[in-house]
Amino acid sequence: MTEQAEPRHTVVVGCLVRNDKNQVLMIRHRKRGWEIPQGRVEESEDLLAAVRREVAEEAGVEVEVGPLAAVWSMVSPGSALIFAFLGRYLSGELNPTDDSEEAAWVDETQALEMVTSPVMRERLAVLLNHDGSISYRSYSLKPYQLHLELNLLSWPQ
């Protein structure tokens, strides 16, 4: 009998940040193009601290982290859990760092037009259409394929 390997998952956080004009914060990643601020959770870091750090690193601004809006489970290649939150801009000037090439405040329609990756576009659309529930989706890449979609708050009572 072969020994089972320990599961290895990458944990990622993302945040749809809005300012007082209801504009959305977008960053341009050097490889993936335009997307919401997001990145890996570091060892011994909690999810909310990771969200605040990633937004600050990628866009140079501070945010108030709001509700968890969606969870994605990437099942191949590799495994990743992506926790996406809603957030509100608090302070700071847009100042992208090494993690991103550009940051911008844009309206929802423009944000969707800017995103070229099917995965990131779907992620942005889910967050823009947040209805108070938590969306759960399982997917794989190469090619992008959605396997499961649930509303976690619609479980029968």
From TrEMBL:
It comes from the Bacteria. Residues 7-128 form the Nudix hydrolase domain. Its cofactor is Mg(2+). The keyword Hydrolase applies. The keyword Nucleotide-binding does not apply. PROSITE patterns: NUDIX, NUDIX_BOX. One of its GO terms (molecular function) is hydrolase activity. Keywords: Hydrolase, Magnesium. PANTHER family: GDP-MANNOSE MANNOSYL HYDROLASE. This is NUDIX hydrolase. It comes from Geomonas oryzisoli. The lineage of its organism: Bacteria, Pseudomonadati, Thermodesulfobacteriota, Desulfuromonadia, Geobacterales.
